[in-house]
Design goal:
Elements lengths: L16 H10 L1 E6 L6 E4 L2 E4 L6 E5 L2 E8 L1 E3 L5 E3 L3 E7 L4 E7 L4 E4 L4 H9 L1 H4 L3 E3 L4 H10 L4 H7 L6 E2 L4 E2 L10 H5 L2 E2 L5 E2 L1 H4 L8 E2 L21 H9 L2 H11 L5 H15 L4 H14 L5 H4 L1 H17 L2 H9 L3 H15 L6 H17 L17
Parallel strand pairs: 1-9, 4-11
Antiparallel strand pairs: 1-4, 2-3, 2-5, 5-8, 6-7, 8-12, 9-10, 13-16, 14-15
Helix pairs in contact: 10-11, 10-13, 11-15, 13-16
């Protein structure tokens, strides 16, 4: 399991009665009923281990939150195991009451879509219910959550959330035959039969079969497909070479086609991808995050057009690097020098760009110095080798 700062026990939240009363009145309540004993249950940047009396979370601040859980199931008389992490986003308003209930058949925490009568009963019986609810902690973890989700909007979630409504670390895949065990599966699953009569997995014949597999449609995150390179119709060889080095045209095209020319929605998708990776444990989301970083670091011309986008990018990337688990931090820094090379291109582009708004190079200089000081990364002005374009 990925080692993150999330896996810490929730300490009791101490507050005076007046503060508690105000937070109860202003905060939302999420009931999570019948969650299996010993399951992990979390919201945003805190996690609980459910006990027999656990029924949910109170005092939830207004805004967007990520709810997640890993159910506990008994494997032997003395051992239990945790299921895959499953999560979903919610948007709360002051005084909201959300009621979810564990479904033992689907092994999902399902929204009961409570009626007004149900909500009224919860509010009227709150004094008795209160003792079974964990308090949402308004400490440093909440500040961290805000830094990771500040740009995410309900429209972002409507676009990105899978149609099934859940984000899971163990997504069902499709695209090729999987592991099978009976001869009857052969025709339907495109397997071969071994001499002993047992069906053979397609992976035994093609070890790279997994490369063609994708999450099933209803479980697929709705991230934008980021092409490696886009060029205008009728581009000359020289222009194609230029667009290979400066991906501003790709960025502008994505903004027009997918984000209604709203640059902050790009930051929102980048944040959503990181949350799905860091908290939801979805590796595909990590890959999407890397693609956004790679694109935004190679857009010299766009620096002049969208200065606020790149200011937000530096801020968001700062918080993401701060919270990246140590094992994956090695991956994004060391694997093909991805991050250092991308940031080198970013700083070079800012240094070479003309007529930038003054705050962009100032922020970039501060960001570069922080990275060099904190991570001992060295950024020097460099000249890339030319990109050779092969003509058809």
């Amino acid at each position: 399991r990925w080692s993150t700062k999330l896996e810490q026990s929730l300490l009791p939240v101490k507050m005076d009665q007046a503060t508690a009363r105000e937070r109860v009145q202003q905060g939302a309540v999420l009931l999570a009923l019948d969650v299996p004993l010993g399951s992990e249950f979390g919201m945003d940047y805190k996690a609980w281990q459910t006990a027999s009396k656990f029924k949910g979370v109170k005092m939830i601040p207004e805004g967007i939150h990520f709810v997640y859980y890993s159910s506990s199931e008994r494997t032997t008389s003395v051992q239990t195991s945790q299921g895959p992490r499953v999560g979903f986003f919610i948007t709360t308003k002051p005084g909201d009451v959300l009621i979810y209930k564990w479904n033992p058949h689907s092994e999902l925490l399902e929204n009961t879509h409570p009626s007004e009568a149900d909500i009224t009963r919860v509010r009227e019986g709150y004094q008795e219910l209160d003792r079974y609810l964990g308090a949402y902690p308004l400490d440093d973890s909440f500040k961290t959550w805000l830094s990771l989700s500040s740009a995410i909007t309900p429209s972002t979630l409507a676009r990105v959330t899978p149609s099934c409504g859940y984000i899971t670390s163990a997504t069902a895949m499709e695209g090729t035959a999987g592991l099978v065990s009976s001869r009857q599966d052969k025709a339907a699953m495109d397997t071969s039969t071994r001499a002993d009569g047992e069906a053979e997995s397609v992976f035994a014949r093609d070890k790279d079969a997994w490369k063609t597999m994708e999450p099933v449609a209803e479980a697929r995150l709705g991230f934008v497909n980021i092409p490696r390179r886009l060029v205008p119709p009728g581009a000359t060889p020289q222009e194609i070479t230029q667009h290979s080095m400066d991906r501003s045209y790709t960025l502008t095209t994505l903004l027009e086609q997918h984000f209604n020319n709203n640059p902050q929605e790009i930051i929102a998708e980048m944040q959503t991808a990181f949350v799905c990776f860091l908290i939801g444990q979805v590796y595909d989301a990590f890959e999407q995050w890397k693609q956004w970083v790679g694109l935004l670091c190679h857009c010299e011309q766009a620096l002049q057009v969208y200065p606020d986008l790149f200011l937000s990018f530096m801020t968001v990337l700062h918080y993401h690097l701060k919270e990246t688990p140590s094992d994956f931090f090695v991956d994004i820094v060391s694997a093909d020098n991805f991050l250092v090379d991308a940031l080198q291109a970013f700083f070079d582009g800012i240094a070479e760009a003309d007529q930038l708004r003054a705050d962009v190079p100032l922020r970039a200089d501060a960001f570069r110095q922080m990275l060099s000081s904190h991570y001992s990364w060295s950024f020097e002005t460099s000249v890339d080798d030319p990109v050779v374009v092969e003509m058809a």
